[in-house]
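Name: Metalloregulator ArsR/SmtB family transcription factor
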Amino acid sequence: MDNDIFKALADPSRRTLLDLLHASDGRSLNELCAPLEMSRFGVMKHLNILEEAGLITTRKVGREKLHYLNTVPIRQIYERWVSKFSEHWAMALTSLQDELESETNVANHTRHVNRIAIKATPEQVWQALTDPDKTSKFWFHCSVRSTWEVGAPFELWCVDGEKKAEGKILALTAPNRLAMSWRFLVIPDAAGDAPSRITWEIDPHAELPGVTLVTVVHDEFENAARTAGILENGLPIVLSGMKTFLETGSTLTGE
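Structure predicted for Metalloregulator ArsR/SmtB family transcription factor:
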């Protein structure tokens, strides 16, 4: 998978497409074609390569197919390889990570979409997402607490006994979909944000038996700029940690 990502990033046109999505996420094919001097077919070919490498995700909104930047693979490359290369290469990766994770421009972003493939069943992913003992292994040492019923409260508690975030269960169809409102309580500047929404979509991979695609969508953050920036950086780490925990039984930090 790493080879596919590096090959996808090697082409300047594809890097331009990633830059365009970083500047304004959720763009249609027509919007992405405008800045590039190439045919519509050429842009579609590059987008398909980026999607196959997992660097972008797509969602159908009405009649349009919109494209979103997926920072999870970049995060995984950073975590796996950054300490194994020379300082010069490490600085280049760090620069790329910083560029992809810079402060969210809420005016140009309507939602953030992250996706990852995990070698586990949807039921195992659902249990990891809803069992407090398991969430503490990958959600920044925090336990997710709820009775898991529509309308029930949702809370994120740190191991030190501090409640970090809260919300309400908006929709629930186990083991495939979970939507919740989200509001930080103790993070500076974000505690005053209005609630936003996080939606988990958990589906069996169409072509790989035993593999589940996990998609996390953060939206409705027009009045939650600080929250959007924090979750844009944090959710890819949560997804990477979930994958590591379910596939190896260990954590990203090795604890």
